[in-house]
Structure formats: C-alpha cells, structure tokens
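tool=predict chain=A
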Amino acid sequence: MFTARDLFDIAVKLEENGEHCYRKAMEVVSDPAVRERLEELADDELSHRRTFLRMKSRVKDRSTPAYEDSMGRIVLQSALGERAFSLEETDFDSMEDEETLLKTAKGFEEDSVAFYEILQSFVTDAEALEHLRAIVREERKHAEAIEEWLENLRFSESIKNF
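tool=predict ok
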C-alpha cells in the first residue's frame, strides 16, 4: 500500500511542478496583470509544498509487505484513472498562445484537486486534514480564476476580431 509519506511526496512534486509552471508562464505572457496573478499562484504553490512537507514530517514511516505495495498502487491507479497529475515538466516553448498556457494551468489545478481529494482519505490527523482541505479550496479557486482569465482572453480576442 502507498504510505502517507509516499502520497505526500507526490503532493510535494505536484506543487513543485505547479510553481515551476507558473514561474515559466510569467516569462511568456504579455499581459502584466496576468503575469502578476501567475506570480501569486506560484507563491501559493510554494506555500502548499511547504505545508505538505510539514505534514509528511509528522507521519511515521512504516514498511509494508510487497503485495500490499502493489495492491496499493493498483487501488490508487484505479482511483486516479487516466489523469497525468502534472508530474512531468511542461514545455512552454511548444505552446502556441496564452490560451493554451492557461488551459494547461487550469488542467494542472483540476488534477491537483482530484489528487488531494483522494489523499484526504489517507490523512487521519485532524489538523493535517484541515490544512489539506484548505489547500483543496485554494486549488479550486485557482482553477476558477484561470477559467475567468480564459473567458476574458476569449472576450478580448472576439472584440479584436469584430
């Protein structure tokens, strides 16, 4: 079975990639307001990563038999489905425009929410669970904000084409 420490390692990696994603995105967007918001998102991801590292440090590591490890991975993979969870680096050079970049960022946030909701079932400490729930709420707000930016971008593009 995956240990809580394993799951926090994945969460830390997600947040590292999110922070990296937003900092790289800041280099390619043209709108200063979007750049500022991306910096705020990057700072939030850094804060989330630190929270997960603290949570991980409070969890006792336990060894499990090999069959439990493989079963845990099967159960987790089944729960995760086909989601990639943004564990790989994002290639911003291949993105054609800001809309593609924002769609990628929104997908990252949605994947994070899905993973953290699954992670909640493995967290038994009440304080840690509340921190995790707060992070889920923030990630949802991030996805909503990015969707709003996408709508504004589409609106601006439709005005230009009018």
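The longest helix spans residues 126-160. The mean pLDDT is 78.
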